[in-house]
Every structure is written in structure tokens, then in C-alpha cells.
Write a structure and sequence with these properties.
The protein has about 450 residues and is α/β, with parallel strands linked by helices. About 30% of the residues lie in helices and about 15% in strands. The radius of gyration is 23 Å and the shape is globular.
Length: about 450
């Protein structure tokens, strides 16, 4: 009996100790966040950073330790933003990744510990943000959808039409069709806008361009923007050529590297801080932070962010293989291994021992070299590190039987953000020599980036 009492006393003491430490840290974070808000307001950036709410499950020490490690996306932190939506007419920029997980997403592996949302089918590990907000009596007036559409099933670059959500009856306005920016008329019945989309941290992945136009429209109509932040799965590094302004497009609007190393929330801060919106206006943004996340965190996406990024392997390889989008070489579209392989009929079949044949499928209605045998490389089972490399595109160019067929020059320049990279590859420069040429621009960007980081 004495031993049992002793064990219970020790366990209770540990729980109380951890709880005290956590609440103490929480108070320190609150103070830090408030100081940050004062500084930002003083500089007229109209930014508010919601502090983290950490807690310990008193049922067990194990749960407490796991909760301390859990990555909790901004959308899940409903206690931090529902009051901001109460009594407001709400517009939402969303797609299939805009979800509230029913349980905490534990470091990217499918481990969950606590029920966060009880309003949906219990067999699903998440609820769509729209459904959850409606179930909480939030007055959503309309939804805006980026490239690939609200359900995320449109081809890359395909125009997405306005429509109506069959489940909720809400009007959906495309930001990748006739308009890439919400119109004044579309925003007439919106008091506050919510932006919640999973990004992958690559400049030519167009969700950050949509973010720019949404911020600009909101700033022009004096509508506050609430950003529910999510981790950047490629957020641990910065690399690639910095975009030259003369090559700006929807595939890259601002002078940032190909891999920028920022979350959506951090990038929104940079857009404001660098006065990139029309006439230098700033958007009133509130960012709901990701809890327990930093730029060295490994985060595996639970939902594919677009049709052709089906898994972690493709997302890690996307910064490097995405450059093939500006060439006549297939990067796995038309297969189930998108951005995990590359090939073309004009690559040397005597050099490569791998081949595949792209066909129309869910991810691509009209893949490059449809129904043709493509010779190249399979990377689906290769252990890859999260970094950017030119070795794949250089390998393909060097082993093309007709090098004039490789580059679609205009499109490649748009993806690279510079016309120089194609010339460097064609001239036979090494990867080290090419990367050295953009080192100064990268250092300048990294120094600028430091001012806008929310996470370590």
C-alpha cells in the first residue's frame, strides 16, 4: 500500500511540475507576442501574431510529452480565431487542404491524441474548414478557390470556373480563371477574409501568387485578412536563382529564390514589409501560428496539395524536378509517380535503363509525350534530402540525343525566374559554378527574410 501511494504521489508531482512549466512558458510566449504586436503596429505593418496556447493533458505524463511535440496547424487552433469571426460576414480562400484535423497531427506521422473537431464523420481524420466553420455558426458568404479548384482536381494551369459547392450551396469564385484577384463586387458582402491553403515553399507553386492578389484586394477594400498558417514541408532551406523583376508572372511575382523557406504567414509579412502590393499599400493581416513548429521540423502532408504532388517523395523532389515544367521533358505527369521520375523519347535509350509511357489520368489530361515511350530516371525509391539540385535537369540535357528539343525557352525562363540558367546549362557549367553565380543574391534575400520569420 505504501509503495502504491508513493508511486501515485510521484506521478502527481511530475504532472504538476510539467503543467507549471508549460503554463509558465505560455505566459512568456504571450508577453513576447504582445511585444511583437506593439513593434509591428508602430511600424504600420498592421500585423498581429496570435500567441501559442500550450497545455498538458493531466490524464498521463506520456500524453503531456507527446502534446509538447505535436505540430498543430493554425486551422486547428479554433480557440484563437473563432471570436474574430463572430458576427462577421466571412469570405474564405480555400481548397482541399483547408482542413481541421480531428486530432493533433504528431510530427507528420499519422499519430493523433486529442479530439479537436466533433462535427464530421468520425471515420475521417479531418473536417474541411468550411464545414467546421458552418457547424460553428460562422456566417460564410462565399468561397474563393486557387489553381486546381476548390476540390483540388483541376490540371495545372487549367482555367477553373466559378460555381457552387454541392455540399453547402455556397458560391465559389475562381481565382484561376477570368479573375486572379477578388473583385470589388465579390467583396461587397465580406467583412473579413480567411486564407487557409497548404503551400510547399516553391516560387512557381502559384498559391503564394494567389495570396498576393487576395492581400491586395483586401487592402484596397479595407478588409482584414486572417491567415491560418501551415508548415512549409520544404521550409528548412533557401536555394535557387532569385527571380529577376522583368520575368515576373503568376509563376513568380517577386524577387525571391526558387525555394524561399517561408510559410504562408511569413511570406505575407514579407509582401507587406517590402511594399509589394499595388501602390505600396499594406494589408491588415492576423496570423494564427502553427504550434510547436520550426523550420527544421519534418512535416509530412496528410492531403496532396495539388493533383500532381501525391506524396512526400514528390514534394521533396518538386523544387528540382519542377524545372522540367519549362522543358519538353516529362516529369512523371501521366503516371502515378509525378515529380518522382523524368524522361522523354529523345533522351538516350542506350544510356538509361528505365522507361515509362505517360497516359492521361487524374493528375494530367494531356501529359507530355502521351502514349510515347520515355527514357529516363526513376527517383521514386531514392532516399532524398530536402534540398534543391540541378543534377537532374543537367543529366537530362547532357543525355538528350537532340539537345534542341530540351528547352521550351520562354516557359523555362518563367519557371527559373531568369534567362541565365538555361544559357549556363547549355554552356556546360558545373552545378557548383552555377550555384556560385547566385550566391550573392541568396545572401541578400536571406538577410531580408530574417525580418519576417515567425518561426525559428
Amino acid at each position: 500500500m505504501l509503495l502504491k501511494v508513493f508511486k501515485n504521489t510521484v506521478l502527481f508531482s511530475i504532472i504538476i511540475g510539467i503543467s507549471s512549466l508549460t503554463f509558465s512558458c505560455g505566459n512568456q510566449m504571450q508577453s513576447k507576442a504582445e511585444n511583437s504586436q506593439l513593434v509591428e503596429d508602430k511600424n504600420s505593418n498592421a500585423l498581429h501574431i496570435i500567441s501559442e496556447n500550450q497545455y498538458v493533458d493531466s490524464l498521463s505524463v506520456t500524453t503531456a510529452i507527446e502534446e509538447e511535440k505535436s505540430i498543430i496547424v493554425g486551422a486547428n487552433r479554433t480557440e484563437s480565431y473563432l471570436t474574430l469571426l463572430k458576427g462577421k460576414r466571412v469570405g474564405v480562400v480555400a481548397n482541399q487542404t483547408s482542413v481541421i484535423f480531428k486530432k493533433a497531427y504528431y510530427n507528420g506521422f499519422n499519430r493523433y491524441h486529442f479530439t479537436e473537431d466533433k462535427s464530421t464523420n468520425p471515420n475521417k481524420p479531418y473536417s474541411h474548414l468550411i464545414d467546421s466553420l458552418l457547424n460553428r455558426n460562422v456566417d460564410i458568404t462565399k468561397v474563393f478557390a486557387p489553381e486546381h479548384g476548390f476540390r483540388g482536381n483541376a490540371d495545372a494551369g487549367e482555367l477553373v470556373k466559378d460555381g457552387k459547392d454541392t455540399k453547402t450551396g455556397l458560391a465559389i469564385y475562381s481565382l484561376h480563371g477570368k479573375h486572379k484577384k477578388p473583385t470589388k463586387t465579390q467583396l461587397e458582402d465580406v467583412d473579413i477574409m480567411v486564407f487557409d491553403i497548404q503551400d510547399v515553399g516553391v516560387r512557381f507553386y502559384t498559391y503564394i501568387s494567389t495570396l498576393h492578389y487576395v492581400m491586395e484586394a483586401c487592402a484596397e477594400q479595407n478588409i482584414p485578412l486572417l491567415i491560418l498558417d501551415r508548415p512549409n514541408p520544404n521550409g528548412n532551406y533557401v536555394d535557387g536563382p532569385v527571380l529577376e523583376k522583368k520575368h515576373s508572372s503568376f509563376l513568380g511575382m517577386h524577387p525571391i529564390p526558387l525555394v524561399h523557406g517561408m510559410t504562408i504567414g511569413e511570406y505575407a509579412k514579407m509582401i507587406n514589409g517590402e511594399a509589394w502590393l499595388n501602390n505600396g499599400i499594406t494589408c491588415n493581416i492576423t496570423i494564427i501560428k502553427v504550434q510547436n513548429y520550426n523550420h527544421n521540423s519534418t512535416y509530412n502532408l496528410a492531403i496532396r496539395p495539388s493533383p500532381n504532388l501525391p506524396n512526400d517523395q514528390s514534394i521533396v523532389l518538386y523544387p528540382s524536378l519542377g524545372l522540367f515544367e519549362g522543358t519538353n521533358i516529362n516529369a512523371g505527369r501521366g503516371t502515378e509517380f509525378q515529380f518522382q521520375r523524368y524522361g522523354a523519347p529523345f533522351l538516350d535509350k542506350n544510356h538509361y535503363n528505365f522507361s515509362y509511357t505517360p497516359v492521361a489520368n487524374f493528375g494530367s489530361k494531356y501529359p507530355k509525350h502521351e502514349n510515347e515511350i520515355c527514357y529516363g530516371v526513376d527517383l521514386s525509391k531514392v532516399n532524398t534530402e530536402r534540398h534543391f539540385t540541378l543534377k537532374y535537369i543537367m543529366d537530362a540535357y547532357n543525355h538528350a540525343t537532340d539537345k534542341s528539343k530540351v528547352f521550351n525557352t520562354s516557359n523555362f525562363t518563367t519557371h527559373a525566374g531568369t534567362a541565365i540558367l538555361q544559357k549556363q546549362i547549355e554552356a556546360g557549367l558545373s552545378e557548383a559554378e552555377i550555384k556560385a553565380s547566385w550566391k550573392t543574391d541568396l545572401e541578400t534575400f536571406k538577410n531580408k527574410r530574417k525580418h519576417y520569420l515567425i518561426y525559428d
